[in-house]
Design goal:
By secondary structure, the protein is an alpha+beta fold. About 20% of the residues lie in helices and about 35% in strands. It has one domain: Nucleoside Triphosphate Pyrophosphohydrolase.
């Protein structure tokens, strides 16, 4: 397991080595976004637990218009009042799961991720310092849970799955953690996190 200082160091220097932009099209050439891109930001929360860091994730409720029922990072659209993607990620996280921004230490960004459904997502990485309270918005969030960072760092848990979409086979990343099926953009951003943390 990487210590906290190594995670901080590698995330901080990531802009020097990364591609800076990824998306669903990486595994599906020619399958670009449907329509104009909407700027969004998510928080990639690394919870600093005594037995090792974890990644905090949410299960979205089934009735939402966008990405219903999927596992995701807390976050959403960047609003006009948000000064930066970081501000948007912290605001959305507090609104969705009740995490106080004062418990989050922002340490950097992953690559921008373009989702086929039309979102251009800026993933913001932050250390979450316990103790903290969680109070999910019942309209948006069905459940909040944590996955060990050690599980995410194990590339043996990174899978490529496929489904047929409009008559075309679509490929995506997936990770099965216990009974949780993490897939799509969230899984791809976790793979990006591992790419950065694995960089020599």
């Amino acid at each position: 397991m990487l210590p906290q200082d190594k995670i901080l160091e590698r995330i901080a220097r990531a802009p020097e080595t990364r591609a800076t932009r990824r998306g669903d099209h990486d595994l599906n050439p020619g399958m670009g976004p449907e329509g104009p891109l909407t700027p969004a930001a998510v928080l990639v929360p690394l919870v600093l637990r005594p037995r090792g860091a974890t990644v905090l994730l949410t299960q979205r409720t089934d009735h939402l218009y966008d990405h219903a029922g999927q596992i995701s990072f807390p976050g959403g659209r960047i609003e006009d009042d948000d000064a930066t993607p970081e501000a948007a990620a912290l605001r959305e996280t507090e609104e969705e799961v009740g995490l106080d921004p004062s418990r989050v230490e922002l340490i950097g960004r992953l690559d921008t991720y373009v989702v086929r459904t039309g979102f251009e997502v800026t993933p913001i990485v932050g250390f979450v310092h316990p103790p903290f309270d969680i109070n999910p918005d019942p309209f948006e969030v069905a459940e909040v849970f944590e996955v060990p960072l050690a599980f995410v760092l194990d590339r043996g848990n990174h899978e490529r799955h496929s489904r047929e979409y409009k008559g075309v086979q679509r490929f995506f990343y997936a990770m099965q953690y216990e009974d949780r099926y993490i897939w799509g953009a969230t899984a791809a951003m976790l793979v990006n996190l591992v790419d950065i943390l694995d960089a020599p």
